[in-house]
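Side project, low priority. Logging it here so it doesn't get lost.
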Amino acid sequence: MSLLTVKSNGSSLGNLFSDFTSLFFPEYCLGCSSGLLKGEEILCTRCLVNLPRTGYLSVEENPVKEKFIGRLPIKNAWAFLRFRKTGIVQYLLHQLKYNHHPEVGIRLGKLFGKELKEQGFNSEFDTIVPLPLFASRQKFRGYNQSAKFAEGLSDSLGVPFNSNCCSRLKNTETQTRKTRVERWENVELAFFVKDKKAIENKRVLLVDDVITTGATIEACGRQILNSGCKELSVVCIAEAQ
C-alpha cells in the first residue's frame, strides 16, 4: 500500500468521523442558532452576509477616528460592526462576554483582519495590544474578550499580539449609563504599561470590544503613547450607535 493511499484513507476516515460527529452532535450558528453546514465556522453564511459592517475602512476620517480629535493623536481608527440594541452584534458580544464563547471574538477578528489585509494595512502595525481587563474580572470570565479579537486579527494580518504588556490598575464600574465626563473620571489612571520595551518605537494597534465615547481607549492609549509608542491606531469590534 502506497503512502498516498494511506494518507487518502486517513483523510477519508477523518471526514467520515467528522460527518458522524456532526450527525449526533451538530454545531450551531452562534448568531441565529441554525445548524451549521459543512465548511461554515461559528457563524452561518446568512449571518456573515448580514453582519452590519460600518464600512469605515474606506473612510479615513470616519466617526470613530473623529471621537479622538483633540484628545488622542492616532493614525487610524476603525470599528468593524455597528452595535444596536437587540441586534445580532449585541447578541454575538453577549455570547463572547457572558456565555463563554471566546471563539466568537477570534472569528470576528479573523474576518476584519482579512479585510484590513486586503486594504494593505497588514504592513502598518508592528504589534497588536488588546485593552486589558482587571485581573479579577478576567479570572472570573476566563479570558479577555478584546484579546480574543486581537488573536483573530493577528492570525489574519500576520502581526504578533501582546496581551501582557499592559495592565488594568482599577476595577472600573460599567460605563453604560455614565455621561462623557463620568466615563473619563471612571477610567482615568486605570491603565499601566508594565513592559515598555514591548511597545517602544513600535506601531501599535490598540484593540477594544465596543466603543461609545472612546474614554477607555483614550486612557489606555495615553499610557501607551507616553511609554514610547511610535504610532498608535485603534480598532474595535463594534461602535455603539
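Brief comment: Residues 1 and 7 are 10 Å apart (CA to CA).
Revisit when time allows.
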